Amino acid sequence: MKALAFATVVTLSFSMAVFAQISKSSLESDKSSKPPTKAAAGVDVAAIQKKIDDYTAAIKDDPGNDKYYGARGQNFEKLGNYTSALNDYNCAIALNPNRQAYFIVRANLHAVQKQFGDAYEDYSRAIACGPVTQGLFRAQGSNALLLGEYDKALVSARNAINLNENDWESLVLLGSVELMKGMFSDSVKHLTRAIEINPAVGGAYSIRADAFAKLGKTELAKRDKAKARELGFFL
After folding, report:
1. What CA dihedral angle connects 17, 22, 28 and 31, to 10 degrees?
2. For 42, what's the count of Cα atoms within 13 Å in the CB-facing half-sphere?
3. pTM, full prediction
4. How far apart are alpha carbons 154 and 186 in whole angstroms?
5. Range of the domain at 134
C-alpha cells in the first residue's frame, strides 16, 4: 500500500512542485517587504548568500518585519539550510500568524524532509487562513495519504473535487484514496474520468490497474499496466 501512495504522489509531483515554487516566490515578490536587493537569478550561491546577509541586516534594523524573515528563510532553503529556513518561517509566523504563504512554504519544507504529519498540519492551517485552492487541498490530501490517514485524505480529495470536478489531478488523488479504502468501483470511476481528461498520465493507468486487479478484472489490469509502461510510468 505504501507503493500505491508513492505512485500517487509521483503522478502529482510535477503540479505540486509548480505550486510550491509559486508559493515560495510570493514571499520575495511582495513589494511591501521592500527587500534590500533584487532576487538572485538561478542558484548562484554567492548571490543568494548576499541576499541572506542583506535580509539579516534588514532584520537587525526592523526586527518586527515578518516579511524579511519569510524572504530570508526562502533563501536559506535554496541553499539547503533547512534548519535556518525553518527557524525563519517560524519567526515569520509568530509575527504574522494570518499570512497564508508562510504556512505553505513551511509545509513544503516539511514535505521535502518527509515530515508528512507536520506538512499536513501546515497545509491545513494555510487552508484555514484562506483563500482555498485545489492545489492546497491536493497537497493536504497527498500528505495525509502518505501518512496512511485515508479518511483525512478522502476529505481533502473531495474538497478539491468540489472546487472543480473536472480537475484530473484531484480525480487521481480521489481515486487513489478510494482504492486504499477498498472503494474499488469508485476508484475505477474517478481514475477513468481523470484518464479521459488527460490520457497521457501514466500514473493514472497504473493506479487504475490496481483497482481493476482488486475487482478481479485481471485482463483490464494488465492492459492498464502495459499502457502505464508505454507512457513511461514504471511504479
Report:
1. 180
2. 4
3. 0.84
4. 12
5. 2-230
